[in-house]
Amino acid sequence: MADLKVDLTAPNGKKITLPTGLFINNEFVKSSSGDKITSINPTDESEICSVEAASADDIDKAVKAARAAFNDPSWRDLPATDRGALMYKFADLLEAHRETLATLETWDNGKPYSVAFNDDMGEVIGTLKYYAGWADKIHGETIPSTAQKFAYTLKQPIGVCAQIIPWNYPLAMAAWKLGPALACGNTIVLKPAEQTPVSILYLASLIPEVFPPGVINIVNGHGRVAGHALAAHMDVDKIAFTGSTFTGKQIMKTASINMKNITLETGGKSPLLVFDDADLEQAAKWAHIGIMSNQGQICTATSRVIVQEGIYDKFVEIFKKVVQETSKVGDPFHDDTFQGPQVTKAQYERVLSYIESGKSEGATLVSGGVPHKNVGDGKGFFVEPTIFTQVKEDMKIYREEIFGPFVVVASFKDEAEAIHMANDTTYGLGSAVFTSNIERAHRVAARIEAGMVWINSSNDSDFRIPFGGVKQSGIGRELGEAGLAAYSQTKAVHVNLGLRL
Ligand SMILES: NC(=O)c1ccc[n+]([C@@H]2O[C@H](COP(=O)([O-])OP(=O)(O)OC[C@H]3O[C@@H](n4cnc5c(N)ncnc54)[C@H](O)[C@@H]3O)[C@@H](O)[C@H]2O)c1
């Protein structure tokens, strides 16, 4: 449809024709309700464009398309090696459009262009290729039983998978979800976050060059309408979600209607422990990466730095210097920018409200704590990277996920207290331990209640290694071989070799 695209000129001068429709059955279509989402540039608060937003009826159409594709021999019976080849082809196509995709990601989300181009697009392409390689290596087992029985298992796809993703890594989160689902032979309805609807539409426009109609459907829409309709749909077999713990719990409840298979990756308040035998310069640099990257909008952000008493003051001094010297806030299209704007006004205001909370609860503000107004004409959702020290365990800023360039620094006496403080949270996603004592490093790693522990690093994620949380940080694993378990099911086949009744 001619009117379902828009010609754009990005802030870096790149000209892009962007489809704006709902991507269903390899076509862009209008929303049946006429509902739209307006995408805002967080750097200057200008409007980028409006895109179609799905109604429950549109979600039903997308699910029907995915079901038809799942049952179609062109997908169902495609040899797994050929399925992998399609995934490689798609990854190559994304590589060819890397600049455009990274441009849209930066424009819509606010992350620095160098990060979008190198890190996020590297993750997208790497993850898809990694899972392309798995496609023909997913197989069952033969199981010894009795002389009269032959038993084996089949690994089969789950069916129609709904995937609901957040705004902090729009393209990378899509790749984390699409990769294992496609490798296992499922079909997909993916709903991006309403805050970042743009880059994924460009990705969708490349799908018809590779995949049969209905295999991947991408429907922008609001959480409470389109997201809810996916969770509630009786013909969706699986739901995978990344976002807030609050929404994860709602989805769990809604998805129980037909007992959907479920994977959740939700919030965190991840600890980073610094023992007095650690390399303090390295600990400070990794602590900076662990919380200030991606504008602090990382589910595994090591947002609670907990330092042994004897080195507390020295660590704070080094850490403050690293943050102030490295976290250059600015226009995300400038080469020297480390930190762009928060994704939306709501997130910006949320971070500022936690700054007020930290001050009123009596923590000590040692850096930042104010909006950053030196970009362009002073508009945009920029916050100075913020450090609070002398933080107590009952303070809101110590306990709640903030999702911004905001870190608290607390202290511990000994190893037992460090472990207690690390685990004193409802979350259990990431964690980090800095020590030069190899025995302590592994002892503490085993005791921390978290899905991931980094020893002497932080947020060093890797698509070959399982990712996910415990406690209220999620259910199931993404990435690595473990990520395949979320998208396949095991069928046991019993063969009678002569048992007569
Ligand atoms: N773990 C993460 O990676 C992650 C990512 C984004 C946000 N968050 C946390 O969540 C907070 C709020 O952010 P948010 O409001 O964008 O997150 P959210 O959980 O509301 O949104 C994430 C996704 O869920 C969808 N959604 C929302 N309500 C839904 C519902 N009832 N049913 C189905 N889908 C629904 C949204 O449309 C979006 O695609 C952040 O400040 C941060 O603390 C965490």
From TrEMBL:
Q: Give the InterPro entries listed for this entry.
A: Ald_DH/histidinol_DH (IPR016161), Ald_DH_C (IPR016163), Ald_DH_CS_GLU (IPR029510), Ald_DH_N (IPR016162), Aldehyde_DH_dom (IPR015590)
Which top EC class is given? Answer: oxidoreductase
Location of the Aldehyde dehydrogenase domain: 28-493
Q: Example GO biological process term?
A: carboxylic acid biosynthetic process
Q: Which UniProt keywords apply?
A: NAD, Oxidoreductase
PROSITE patterns cross-referenced by the UniProt entry = ALDEHYDE_DEHYDR_GLU
Active site, UniProt feature: E265
UniProt EC number = 1.2.1.3
One GO molecular-function entry? aldehyde dehydrogenase (NAD+) activity
Q: Which family does it belong to?
A: Belongs to the aldehyde dehydrogenase family.
Q: What is this protein called?
A: aldehyde dehydrogenase (NAD(+))
